[in-house]
Amino acid sequence: MAKPILYFTSGSQPCRAVLLLIRHLNLDVEVKVIDLFHGEQHSAEFLKINPAHEVPTLVDGDFVLTESRAILAYLINSRKAGSDLYPTDPQARARVDQRLNYDHVLFNKNTSMYRPLIFGEIAAIVPQARDAVINTVKVIETFLENSKWIAGDNLTIADFSALANISTIVEFGYDLTQHMNLNRWYEQCKSLNGFEENLEGAKLLASIVKSKTDTIF
Fold first, then answer.
1. What are the residues facing 5 on neighbouring strands?
2. Are 176 and 186 in contact (CB under 8 A)?
3. Is the CB of residue 155 less than 8 Å from the CB of residue 162?
4. In terms of C-beta density within 10 A (0-12 exposed, 13-18 middle, 19 or more buried), how is residue 10 classed?
């Protein structure tokens, strides 16, 4: 059987979340880079795979899956079923799912803040959009008040998704040290396989956004 293919772009937080898990599990997955800025997501070849022209996209044999959080869950269920990374206990799994869903809130608010800048719709970060990101980060800080990781005392797929997003705002210039729990979590994430590779993607995205404005945070 052919190995799975991940269609990926390094600046994308959802793509980097999936790649972090792949590196952590040491999975044999082919990574194909899609250049969004040159429109490769609209190529006829890629549209046959994903008509929504989005990344990440995972192709596993005849099975095609999109949406990073669904891909994270699928990789565990298909490769490491029963792993604490996506626990089978209903309440523990629900906690992971809730954290993943809230991380999606952060992703949406963050992209709503910087995407209009990238595409020339605004000339500076809108303060209200910045505040929305900061307030969401403050909620994530509370998730870590009594737990080592985002969804409890064990590393889970929620941490990989959160890391891709949090590392991005850190590279945007956000001072994480003002949040004791989140900063402690981020420091321990530095030991994860793929952390530096993820950071390269976060830095790439930050460089694009910073080229449009002097101040993000």
1. 30, 59
2. yes
3. no
4. middle
Distance CA 93, CA 84 (A): 9
Q: Which residues of the chain have pLDDT under 50?
A: none
| Distance from chain centroid for Cα 187 | 17
DSSP 88-154: -SHHHHHHHHHHHHHHHHHHHHHHHHHHHHHTTS-SS--HHHHHHHHHHHHHHHHHTSS-SBTTBSS
The gap from C-alpha 66 to its chain's centroid, in whole angstroms, comes to: 13
User: What's the burial of 190, exposed, middle or buried (CB within 10 Å: 0-12/13-18/19+)?
Assistant: exposed
Per-residue pLDDT tens digits for 166-204: 999 999 999 999 999 999 999 999 999 999 999 999 999
With contact defined as beta carbons under 8 Å apart, do 118 and 209 qualify?
yes
Active site residue ranges: 12
Q: Which residue has the tokens 């694009």?
A: 208
- In angstroms, how far is CA 165 from the centroid of its own chain? 5
Phi and psi at residue 169, in whole multiples of 5°? -70, -30
Amino acid at 143: F
Percent over 70 (pLDDT), the chain = 100
Would you say 78 and 92 are in contact if contact means Cβ atoms under 8 Å apart? no
* Verdict on whether the full-model pTM lies above 0.85: yes
For residue 1, the model assigns a pLDDT of 66
